[in-house]
Amino acid sequence: MSETPSPQHTALSLAASGVPVLPLRRGKVPFGNCPACADNACGGRPNMKTPGPCRCPGVCHAWAAATTDPAVIVSPEWAAAWRRAVCVGYHPGGAGLTVVDLDDADAIAWARTTLPATRTVPTKRGEHWIYRGTMRSVNAVRPGVDIKSAMAYARYLGPGTGTMTDLPDAVRALTEKEPAPVRPVAVAVPTEAGGGECPHRTPAYLERGIAMAEQRITEASSAVHATVYRTFLAVLSRHGRCGCLTDTHVARLFTAAQSKGETARHCADAWTNARTRLGL
Length: 280
Known about the structure:
Layout: H1 7-16, E1 21-25, E2 29-30, H2 70-73, H3 76-84, E3 87-90, E4 97-102, H4 105-114, E5 119-122, E6 127-132, E7 138-142, E8 145-148, E9 154-155, E10 165-166, H5 169-172, H6 203-218, H7 224-239, H8 247-259, H9 264-278
Parallel strand pairs: 6-10
Antiparallel strand pairs: 1-2, 1-3, 3-9, 4-6, 4-8, 5-6, 7-8
């Protein structure tokens, strides 16, 4: 009777076929960043769009740590993580793939009547449907359905069955639905002495602040709800009293949060709670 391959052995096999891999710890989540990289202090790579965001040799930056380099996978810096790993994760987008994660029987039934057949892998509660091609990753595109591709990770659960087919427009369309309505932001614009213009209205300054807030949310690998709240609080503490923020800015922040699985209601509640705390 053959033994079950270790996570590291499985990772090496996948990497040899061009699939970027990373170890997953208990809870089937990535390992946290090392102290030098905590809160992206190392600077990361611009927009975290490619694996290997910094020179840290450890298992840092969640999905962006995924690698196909066997020397990294067997390195001493990764050894402790493999000893604690419960399974192997991989970056679908880095392998040119998209995983449609179907979480229950209803989602599977929907897929079978809506999407073209492709390679399928059984999960504990549902199935992974794997297509050839990449797209942006979005959770909860419909009940029980998540999309995992670029800037995301998926668990490796075996090779699956069936012939992999090209990513269909029907899957891409799942992420193109209209964004949830955003509550209007009612903040007072203070009157400055001499009628001067609010310094936060400088387009580059405000744009940089919103972009950084979006990045902080989308890079969160754990405690997403808390990260969203803290980010909203930071944005409002900087811009909430001067009238800089528009509905468009708030919609961008809500969209970033919803891309990490937050619901529109959670976004609205977090925004309201942050405003209340600041007395806005």
